[in-house]
Amino acid sequence: MADEKTPKPKIELGEKDEPSSQAQHRPDEAEASAGDAVRHGVNCVSAWVSRTFPGHEKAFWGGVIGLLAAVVFFAIGFWRTLVIAVLVIAGVAAGQVLDGDPKIVNALRHIFVRNNQ
């Protein structure tokens, strides 16, 4: 029985009086409802962090990011983690350049220009 897959429950996002066939024909409303649900969940977590750690929200999120980095480091190793970090930073820098606000590029330029003078 462990090999058998159980069917996933279907969630209806339409009105209660509305037949399920009509609810399936409106993907825009379903996507909007899913987006609203995600936003609501993020807002709930953010409110919990603000209530639980008042004035230290950024320290909490820094700790969460540090924990995730440690898990990745121990799961895949130092060099792979370093490559992922460098590629993520390069991607963010490229996105900032395309947005017209290259903070990372300017910071790197400032570091290397200061050392050369």
From TrEMBL:
Q: Name one Pfam family in it.
A: DUF2273
Membrane-crossing residues? 59-76, 82-99
Biased composition range(s): Basic and acidic residues: 1-29
Question: Keywords, A to Z?
Answer: Membrane, Transmembrane, Transmembrane helix
Official protein name in the record? DUF2273 domain-containing protein
The ranges of region (Disordered) come to 1-35
